[in-house]
Amino acid sequence: MTVTVDKARCTGCTVCVQSCPSDVLRMKASKAHVAYPESCTDCFTCELDCTREALKVVPGTILARRNDKRKTIEEVFLWHTTA
Amino acid sequence: MVQRSVGCDVLVIGGGIAGCMAAIRAAEMGARTVLASKGPVGRSGSSVVAAGTYLYYSPEEDLQGYLRDACRIGHFLDDQEMEEEVIRECHQRRLDMDKWGVEWDKEGADFVRKPGLGMTTMRNCYFHGGRQMMSVLRGEVERQGATILDRLMVTDLLTSDGQHPTRGRVVGAVGFGARDGRFYVFEAKATVLASGDWGIGELHPGDNTGDGQAAAMRAGAQMRNMDQLGFSVAPSAFPSMPGLHPLTGHGAHFLNRLGERFMAGYHPELMERAPRAVLAQSMAREIKDGRGPVYMDCRHLSREDLERLARILPHTFKAFQRLGIDLARDLVEYMPVLYGNGPSGGVRVGKDCRTTVEGLFCAGGASDRMYAGVPGLTGASVQGWKAGGTAFHYAAGQATLPLDQRQVMDLEKVIHQPLGRVEGPAPKEVYCQVRDIVKEKIGVLKDGERLAQGAEALDRLRREVVPYLRAEDYHGLMRTHEVRNIVELGELVARASLERKESRYFNYREDYPQRDDVNWLKWVIAQTEGHEARIWTEDIPLLRVKP
Fold first, then answer.
1. What's the gap in Å between the CA of A4 and the closest CA on chain B?
2. Domain ranges in chain A?
3. Within the 219-248 window of chain B, which residues sit less than 8 Å (CB to CB) from chain A?
4. Tell me, what's the ipTM?
């Protein structure tokens, strides 16, 4: 995962949830929560906006994600005939 | 679904610097102004991740020298009147932002100035990153009384004749709340698109998916320079890293696997400060010819320079640190990365930011950026201000037209349809396909055969896959509409690139490797007719500077 939340440090102030440009973060049980990790683009906005150092971005995971096993283009085209 | 109707004089779409400038200007002049942005205004788009580069121009500089420099960098693809305007007016925009509280790198009262990529006469100055700047701009938008609607994705434009493409004018837009899915209908006398460029997140911010460009294209606006798919260079481990201008401006070197400063062979005059297009193409060539990987070398920089860079690029340095890289000690592996149509290409606008469709204005990355030779954010700030003013004057002479309710209903259906599907491809699957097609078939070093294959693959995705995209929730709904826009514009980029049969600026054709100033000082223009795009060329008027 590209971004992680340290729940012990998070005070639930919601600043990161408001500032994430890709809408990755939401609130859950009064703490910031990584709801859509695949949408993270390593932009560091949340980490830089957090005053409690509760968020941490480790760049490079986008690159790793690129090599994920995924469908070939023909499989995507054929989804409606094989589904 | 509950509908929310919003009426205004000027609707600004997009919350980067162009959108904020447009909203500030329109509101300041007295227009009822609404600023709608898919991401949060002040924290989304390209501006907020900007490293801080801004063109330094003041009236005592040599304007014609600046213009010659800029035209040369942009390979004469620019509208020279627009470029001149941007250079002249960025002085006032810089002073305004300084007054509003944007922090700049200064020595005493003087702006620190350095040459940027490709610059011989021109100089850049630096603000302290996009975050501080955009927080200030958001505050100024609020201070001028414009209404901000965050996390609202505008999907399509409304037209007076209810048609796409239209023969009438733009009368507003529709969109939805990216968190609550609520349907929005905007009735606007004038609409300013400032929603950024098209790209596939690498160096490029992931939220810039060309939403405004695609909406304008569907509404029938002309697009220009879409063959200029931009690439840049960035660390392989952190392709979204901002800061190339400042790093090379302070003297960073690029080395190939053999330890050679290979830029000497491609651009002996400027070396690593060569224009971005030349850097990306040279790096791709080194790797393709087996001299990769390539590295950035900052080991020779002084401690003062590294400290200044760390101030200008705080999170870049934080990321380096986290990756275990110390610039004073280590080489950093680099690669060419996709940059979207950031450098040039987008909705065609004139000097006053009018598009070819009445009632629709455009600024910044969404526009065709006829100022490719200067740092993009500089042009976006000047254009945004101008678009806000032009839109205000246009709106003042217009009545609000009744909306075509059938068009509103049809477009609402288009918005919410992916939520109703129980099967169908997820947006991420299609996104990955598009990114691979763009990198492998379009690419830094282009070729006619590959481009045709890329255009065909994207055309098939558009016709056979996009209409069946499935969204699981409102976040997914936003992604499906982004993917639709990425596919439509990607196909246009491939087809426009194919049209240019020479190499110019970012469109490097391996099958036509020479720049041809005799036959190809032309713009590639595209416009939707029926369901397809028609593409043609137009001679570029060289009003000020000739090659």
1. 14
2. 3-82
3. 236-241
4. 0.88
